[in-house]
Write a structure and sequence with these properties.
mainly alpha
């Protein structure tokens, strides 16, 4: 990997995320031996990682799409069938699939967000080895670090490599499990997923019985949710389903009034498992999720410059008229509360604080669909139908227990998942995993001309190329096809 890129970005993370972080871990006064036994020092490093995940400008200077993990979830979703943007502006490179090309600066957005954080958690994992994690504080630190590393590699593998099943020996991403400034070649899909699985399995063991400290930090439930999703990708359905079920305990489903409240406050959303609390002092304002995706905010790109983020017409039409989630989008004919918004504009994401909307990364609702799909694929279709019913009846009072089976049942589960988690970072990854083509150019499509095209299953464009900066400085890297 590019030596200066890793070192510079890692130092940036460790020296610019939070003032209190600098005060807690003065680099000049703590050595490796002290770090290995200091829960406070290592906790401060992990807190720096969490801060980096919601920070602006750590990847691409001056880019208003670069505000951390939430920006990557948004970028991939806008590459799916389910979302569109009405004007060519920020995120257009993702929408039109140019961002995945090695020479486009956006190709390094995820690469330069996750790899520096992997290096940082490797520092912690070196200091707090499995043998050193002897008390609950150090177990918590090592467990969090492992869960984060596993999840970061999962994100990278799904973006810069092929899907797992049938591609185990294909190239994925470089693996770094120790602190190193030497470049590594791309590992195989199987090798990367072995690290992901082992990290998350150890994390779950270490975090057993350790109380949650809020939605910012990863806990055992979150680690289980990560691994359930990983196992769904790997086709380990009998392992995925129980993990998804266990993960969501103590995270109740949202009531209608809260679901329609804007998804801007982790304290209001009881199903939030993992997220970031944003204050006005921390806000990057226009370079933020709500600036780009809150169509009602006149001070942001979406509402102010009318770069609206809307739902695909086909998906909107597939939502039952008795499902309250359909009201999260402007109906044909307009909306009386927001008369200036166009048809199909999303009003799901709204931040009444203007500049302090929290970032929700993971909701317990997602685990219902993971469990239902895993059960169906493992042969327990009655169980899958019941799990799907358990969540859908809370959204649509007219919903009845499904009688579908086989592919039709899977399709129903995925449809409900697309509706529930629209704009939350699942749609494109599921398209890729399930072998669904990009289909935006269809009769009556509401996609604009610059995004109205189709891409067949298996096309190279479903894989991000390794960024040019990495290619230039790491001779061991083999590039993905254009």
């Amino acid at each position: 990997m590019k030596k200066t890129l890793i070192l510079t970005l890692s130092l940036l993370v460790l020296t610019s995320c939070e003032k209190e972080f600098l005060d807690t871990v003065p680099e000049s006064t703590i050595n490796d031996d002290q770090l290995a036994t200091s829960a406070a020092a290592n906790a401060a490093i992990i807190n720096g990682v969490y801060s980096a995940l919601r920070s602006y400008g750590l990847s691409i200077d001056g880019n208003h799409e670069d505000y951390g993990h939430k920006s990557i979830l948004a970028a991939t979703d806008i590459m799916s069938n389910d979302m569109l943007m009405t004007k060519s502006s920020w995120y257009a490179s993702f929408y039109n699939y140019l961002a995945r090309q090695q020479t486009n600066s956006r190709s390094r957005l995820a690469w330069s967000v996750y790899y520096p954080q992997i290096k940082t958690v490797n520092i912690v994992l070196t200091a707090v080895s499995a043998e050193a994690a002897t008390d609950s504080d150090l177990k918590k630190i090592r467990g969090e670090a492992l869960a984060l590393r596993g999840y970061f590699y999962f994100m990278l593998a799904r973006m810069y490599g092929p899907t797992y099943i049938g591609n185990e020996d294909e190239l994925s991403v470089p693996l770094y499990t120790k602190v190193s400034l030497e470049g590594a070649p791309r590992a195989t899909v199987k090798e990367v997923y072995t690290v992901i699985e082992n990290d998350l399995l150890e994390s779950i063991i270490l975090l057993q019985g350790i109380p949650s400290t809020g939605t910012t930090a990863v806990n055992q439930s979150i680690a289980k949710a990560f691994l359930a999703d990983v196992y769904l990708e790997m086709g380990k359905y009998t392992e995925s389903a129980p993990l998804a079920h266990e993960a969501r305990q103590n995270y109740p489903l949202l009531m209608q009034s809260v679901w329609l409240n804007g998804f801007y406050d982790v304290t209001l959303n009881s199903d939030t498992m993992w997220g970031a609390t944003i204050t006005s002092a921390q806000s990057s304002f226009v370079a933020s999720f709500f600036s780009h995706f809150d169509n009602t905010n006149a001070g942001g790109y979406a509402g102010g410059l009318q770069v609206y983020k809307n739902i695909d017409k086909n998906l909107y039409n597939a939502i039952s008229n008795t499902d309250y989630r359909k009201t999260a989008f402007v109906a044909p004919g307009g909306n009386t509360t927001y008369p200036s918004l166009p048809e199909y504009a999303n009003i799901k994401f709204r931040d009444p604080t203007i500049d302090a909307g929290d970032y929700i990364y993971l909701r317990s609702a997602s685990t219902y669909y993971i469990e239902a799909e895993a059960l169906a694929r493992a042969g327990n279709e009655p169980g899958a139908r019941q799990i799907l019913y358990d969540i859908t009846i809370t959204r649509d009072p007219a919903y009845v227990l499904s009688t579908n089976s086989g592919a039709a049942l899977i399709d129903e589960i995925i449809l409900q998942k697309r509706i529930e988690l629209w704009g939350e970072g699942y749609a494109w990854f599921d398209m890729k995993r399930l072998g669904v083509p990009l289909t935006r150019d269809y009769p009556g499509s509401n996609h604009p001309a610059f995004g109205k095209f189709n891409i067949p299953v298996g096309d190279n464009r479903f894989i991000f190329q390794v960024p040019q900066a990495e290619i230039d400085t790491n001779p061991l890297i083999e590039q993905s096809p254009l």
